[in-house]
């Protein structure tokens, strides 16, 4: 009987260590999102370690844009960004360099979905500061030295709405057969434009993607 006690203690100790490690990894990778208004008069807390910051600035000259960003583990919600303001978040790239954030962006005349941060691509192009500018002709991604090396052209909202409707039909038939990253990107893109969902008569569709 006495011989089993050390074994139980050893197993409990291992479980505690794994829980602490999981908590540490979660805190390490958790993003912190802010907008221009939220940042006014505030300063970031210095954690003593270097983080990457992604900033998306509105240069649409008189128009707002709507943005909804996600990672595998975090949904940062939908935000409306006014002209000359920005939306940004900071995070630590994970140990395996697989960190990825994708966003749906929409304004009056267009929309798009894209990976606004992808570690395998961006560790060598914008190590700590990844800046994007939303303009009328396109969305521009700047590298570490400030040169626009990524240009994203707008897609028609009508085309996107039709694509979302098609996804709803297929999702109800066989959602799990979709490639997860593609499905997730389309899901975020569709959720950004609820007015188009209502016009198509599928207002509840984004909530049904619980595959």
Tags for this model:
self-incompatibility; Immunoglobulin-like; alpha+beta; 211 residues; Self-incomp_S1; signal; 2 domains; elongated; 4-stranded antiparallel beta sheet; secreted; 6 helices; 30% strand
Number of spatially distinct domains? 2
H/E element order: HEHEEEEEEHEEEHHH
Strand order of the largest sheet: 1-5-2-8-9-10
Task: Label the structural class.
Answer: alpha+beta
Percent helix, as a range, is 25-40%
Query: What form results from the Cα inertia axes?
Result: elongated
Number of strands: 10
Mind telling me the CATH superfamily name of the largest domain? Answer: Immunoglobulins
The CATH class designation of the largest domain is Mainly Beta
- From the 3D coordinates, which CATH architecture of the largest domain would you assign? Sandwich
> Might you state the CATH topology name of the largest domain?
Immunoglobulin-like
Mean pLDDT across the residues is 73
Measured by DSSP, the beta-strand proportion falls in 25-35%
Description:
This is S-protein homolog. InterPro entries: Self-incomp_S1 (IPR010264). Keywords: Secreted, Self-incompatibility, Signal. Belongs to the plant self-incompatibility (S1) protein family. With 211 residues, the protein is α+β, with helices and mostly antiparallel strands. The chain has 6 helices and 10 strands. The strands form 2 sheets. It has a 6-stranded mixed beta sheet. A hairpin with a 5-residue loop joins strand 9 and strand 10. 23% of the residues are buried.
